[in-house]
Amino acid sequence: MDVEEALEFVDHLALTTTGKHLDSLQKAILRGAWDNQKYKEIAQHHNRSEKYVKEVGFKLWKLLSVALGDEQVSKANFRAKLENLQASNIVSLVGNGCIHIGNISADSSQSSKKLQSEPQEKNKFNEKTSNSKPKVHLDLADAPEPNLFYNRTSELTTLENWILGRTRLITILGLSGIGKTALTLQLIPQIQHEFDRIIWRSLRNAPPLASLQTDLIKFLSQQQETELPDLINYLRSHRCLIILDDIQTIFSSQQLAGTYQPGYENYGAFFKQLTESSHNSCLILLSWEKPREIAALEGDNRPGKSLQLNGLGPETQEIFREKGLGEPEKWSELIDLYRGNPLWLNIVATMIQDLFGGSVSEFLSYDTLFLGDLESLLHQHFDRLTASEQQVISWLASTIEPADISQIADNLQLSPPELLKVMQSLGRRSLVETVKQNGRSHFSIEPVIREYITNKK
Ligand SMILES: Nc1ncnc2c1ncn2[C@@H]1O[C@H](COP(=O)(O)OP(=O)(O)OP(=O)(O)O)[C@@H](O)[C@H]1O
Ligand SMILES: [Mg+2]
Known about the structure:
Blueprint: H1 3-18, H2 24-34, H3 39-46, H4 50-68, H5 78-87, E1 91-93, E2 98-101, E3 104-107, H6 127-132, E4 136-139, H7 153-164, E5 169-173, H8 180-191, E6 197-202, H9 209-221, H10 231-237, E7 240-245, H11 266-276, E8 282-287, E9 304-308, H12 317-323, H13 331-337, H14 342-356, H15 360-364, H16 374-382, H17 387-398, H18 405-411, H19 416-428, E10 433-437, E11 440-444, H20 447-456
């Protein structure tokens, strides 16, 4: 393999996993890595800052790590990794728009047409490779590129154990920016050997269920529309992983959490069917809100599980280091205020750089918590609440101490059943925190949400 073949190979991979070809800087980084150049030299040749080139390089190695199912790809070992893969006949370019990477087979044309069987003389797979490892077909074109990623070791272990334990439905829940998508991207290389097919679809444009099902089965079965098999039957005969991101788009605003929009109710039955019927595949849902019917399907010995994603811990300090913020001794205060939400912390770090030249203490010296660009993100969550939910959350924002149900009920005109429904719904949206005080559950909201609501009044 020479550098041009390596570039062609990585370009196929990039196209298959991200839907985009490599750009000129990415190619320059790969050429530089092949020739053992330093980032500094690559940056000079390309008229870019070294920091920027490093960032692009880092994302590229992440992308390769995910696509190859190897967490360790780096600039230093990129060439050796590809040469090893080729030496063991694990990688081959077969010249018909398909690449084979050991147990991964990807069709770079992005079409869901059946993979053609390549001519014998071009098939460089050796007996051992093709017999011992079934090929995994991946379609991650709808997923974003993997980015810098810190920690989440215990969440990744939990998810991996659930998958190994044949859980059929996994729901990952959390506020916008908490890291659901990033975590799931990180999970794929860890578990992909378990599956025959992996497909990622975002529901950001709220597709009707029928068109989503057709799209899924076309990729999974690699069949034309006229001969598509039944999805459930297919999921029985093949172990598939289906990841559906941005599920909240099929839920209604101004309704309790997890209420389907008119015309999307059939999704509920679909999720239920995939969870209850016997098959070996797995569905992962990523959502701001928990679908209602899922609660009943979950439990220790049940086929459904959900993971409530909370903020990151001290490792988020890396975000501040990367952004060049000063005063590291103040960083933990920031992480606590913004509850370790990596998106919020990224936005806040940029704001501190822009407004205060990186001085965290100057930022913290203001009495109010500055929201800036966070406001529009929070608005998307607040906008979805019912009138009763808004009433409760506004009252919670006005009290400093966590409150129990009876305190909330004493202050608001809501019947006990309605109040319980509202609290459950706010919990399903990850908008209230629950703490135990004297053996009783008390509810509160996090500082950023409190600030947002207080500003709105
Ligand atoms: N563990 C992590 N380490 C570093 N950065 C992270 C981590 N998790 C997430 N991020 C970053 O935080 C941002 C938000 O993450 P992500 O898009 O995964 O959130 P999300 O929960 O999927 O949000 P949404 O519900 O809006 O889709 C991204 O820029 C992502 O790269
Ligand atoms: Mg996401």
